[in-house]
Design brief:
The complex is a heterodimer of chains A (about 240) and B (about 280).
Chain A lengths: L3 E6 L2 E7 L4 E5 L6 E2 L10 E6 L2 E6 L7 E2 L2 E2 L2 E3 L5 E4 L2 E6 L15 E2 L14 H6 L27 E6 L8 E3 L4 E6 L3 E8 L2 E9 L4 E2 L2 E2 L5 E2 L4 E5 L2 E8 L1
Parallel strand pairs in A: 3-4
Antiparallel strand pairs in A: 1-2, 1-11, 3-5, 5-6, 6-9, 7-8, 7-10, 10-11, 13-14, 13-22, 15-16, 16-17, 17-20, 18-19, 18-21, 21-22
Chain B lengths: L6 E8 L9 E6 L4 E8 L4 H23 L13 H23 L7 E10 L2 E7 L3 E6 L2 E4 L6 H7 L5 H4 L7 E2 L12 E6 L5 E5 L1 H4 L4 H10 L4 H14 L6 E8 L8 H11 L1
Antiparallel strand pairs in B: 1-11, 2-3, 3-4, 4-5, 5-9, 6-7, 6-10, 10-11
The chains are: A mainly beta (about 240), B alpha+beta (about 280).
Chain lengths: ~240, ~280
């Protein structure tokens, strides 16, 4: 079923428009696909571009502008239930496509036989293809990273903390706010703490000896941590506990 | 020239949490400096067949040719480096075998595969790809995608239709614009990059980068570079923890030392004795 726009004013539905064309125009003039006869609407007010299952809203420099979900918008990638406002009129975007989270099958890679346009990749110089990626990773950021888009919504889990029990950093706490946290000294002994949906796991990364949990060696395999476990790594003892 | 001393390569492939089949295929060989990863598609077991053909054609043909010729040599016909020619020609060869198999066997009709293949030689890597399987590079702190997907989404990003941030919301994520085995001919994209000691190259199928943010992939590779097997495990585990909706495969290549091709007669002789 194609995505559609539902035109309404003051809460009453006027008409439904399926987005079957690549370009659906909205405006006051009758030649528009969605013609709205109202002086607040420009003659060619906006357009919705639909490419397979994705639709994009674009205001065509209209006099009075457009809002999407309450904010003035020039260009917007429409998501299910978005509301476009033009003057007093509302256009609700509905896209009943099975979302990727609910239908695994939809994700099967498919080939698009006829490219929409010649692939730009073949004409782009080599140097540029690497340079486009801007983000560099930061590991010291204290703010928790946004969970992966795909991550299933989980109940707010208690925050796990590591507290140092001896040595010069005695008493210091480290919040395990990232998916992975490494502990130890590179080249000497390193372990990694992984935050997983069903708990926290410690795994040996490198070094001649394995980390100890509550006095016994964990070996090479991941070891699940329990509240108040004591980890010992390169002579440093630390306690793992959950904070609410 | 045997690259065992210069490269450390690990790889893993996993069906994920949802699919019953693993349609990905991987192979790697530190001696030849070769890493190949393919993500097949097609009904029944055709996806596995397509990716399996692609990987075995590339691996066996390239190994065979490298028995007699070095990849840094100039190919007399095209005046290009042999490494580049080997990748391109053998992706085309794999394409033809998959295409012919699909034409002759009804159960394989329409099968195809993406591919990403890296050949390391003379302190460089030549990388060929078709579709949305990727190669990333970690150099120092910087983790970057080196290949550019042949996908509708990437074309939309390139033409400015959609921003990179919005791209993850797209419903058109899995539409590739090029694949191996779908048509009688295919144009693989091949580039050559200089490598540096300490670099780590990650080859992966979209089962990884659709499920795990690039930032998290980069952090994992950087943090666990001291234990490459664990790094590969962790990447797969994260994809599966996030839902594992597709097969997920990774190959990690670490540049441990220089592997400049021997030049001059004496160097060649020494290198010949070393092997």
């Amino acid at each position: 079923m194609p995505a559609k726009l539902i035109l309404s004013m003051d809460g009453s539905v006027i008409k439904e428009y399926p987005l079957t064309k690549e370009r659906t125009t909205i405006g006051r003039k009758p030649h528009n696909d969605i013609a709205i006869e109202n002086l607040a609407v420009s003659s060619e007010h906006a357009a919705v571009i639909t490419i397979l299952n994705d639709s994009f809203f674009e205001d065509l420099n209209s006099t009075n502008g457009s809002m999407v979900n309450g904010t003035p918008t020039q260009k917007h990638f429409l998501q299910n239930n978005d509301v476009i406002e033009i003057g007093k009129y509302k256009l609700k975007y509905l896209n009943d496509q099975p979302t990727q989270t609910s239908a695994a099958d939809f994700e099967k890679t498919m080939v698009l036989r006829a490219p929409i346009k010649p692939s730009p990749a073949s004409v782009v110089p080599v140097a540029e293809s690497g340079a486009k990626f801007e983000s560099t990773t930061q590991y010291n950021a204290t703010a928790p990273k946004p969970a992966s888009v795909a991550a299933p919504a989980a109940a707010p889990a208690p925050v796990a903390v590591i507290q140092i029990l001896n040595g010069p950093n005695l008493g210091k706490e480290l919040e395990l706010s990232k998916n992975l946290t490494t502990l130890g000294k590179p080249g000497v002994q390193v372990a990694v703490l992984a935050r997983r949906p069903h708990g926290y796991f410690i795994t040996h990364v490198e070094g001649g000896s394995f980390p100890l949990v509550n006095g016994s060696s964990i070996g090479e395999q991941p070891h699940q941590l329990n509240d108040h476990d004591v980890i010992e790594l390169a002579g440093i003892k630390m306690e793992f506990y959950l904070k609410n | 020239m045997n690259l065992n001393q210069a490269l450390e390569i690990v790889g893993q492939t996993n069906p994920g949490m949802v699919r019953s089949h693993n349609e990905d295929s991987i192979t790697f060989d530190a001696e030849y400096g070769l890493a190949v990863l393919a993500d097949g598609m097609g009904g029944y077991n055709a996806g596995e067949v397509a990716s399996g053909i692609a990987v075995s054609v590339l691996a066996s043909e390239i190994r065979h040719r490298m028995e007699s010729d070095a990849p840094e040599q100039k190919d007399p016909d095209s005046d290009e480096e042999l490494g580049v020619v080997l990748l391109r020609e053998n992706v085309k060869k794999a394409n033809l075998s998959i295409f012919n198999a699909a034409q002759s066997q009804p159960q394989y009709a329409g099968m195809g595969t993406t591919i990403v293949a890296g050949l390391f030689y003379d302190n460089r890597v030549a990388v060929a790809h078709v579709g949305d399987s990727r190669m990333y590079r970690l150099r120092g702190e910087a983790f970057e995608t080196i290949t550019r997907d042949h996908s509708l989404l990437q074309e939309q990003i390139d033409s400015g239709v959609i921003s990179k941030e919005m791209a993850r919301l797209s419903q058109n994520k899995n539409l590739v614009t090029r694949a191996v085995g779908i048509d009688a001919d295919v144009v693989p994209e091949v580039h050559v990059y200089d490598t540096e000691v300490g670099d780590i190259y990650l080859f992966c199928s979209d089962g990884l980068n659709d499920m795990v943010e690039d930032e998290d992939i980069g952090a994992t590779v950087q943090m666990l570079q001291g234990n490459m097997t664990l790094a590969a495990n962790q990447l797969i585990e994260q994809a599966n923890d996030n839902g594992g909706r597709d097969n997920v495969s990774v190959i990690l290549v670490k540049i441990k030392g220089s592997y400049a091709a021997p030049r001059g007669l004496w160097a060649k002789l020494v290198s010949w004795f070393r092997n």
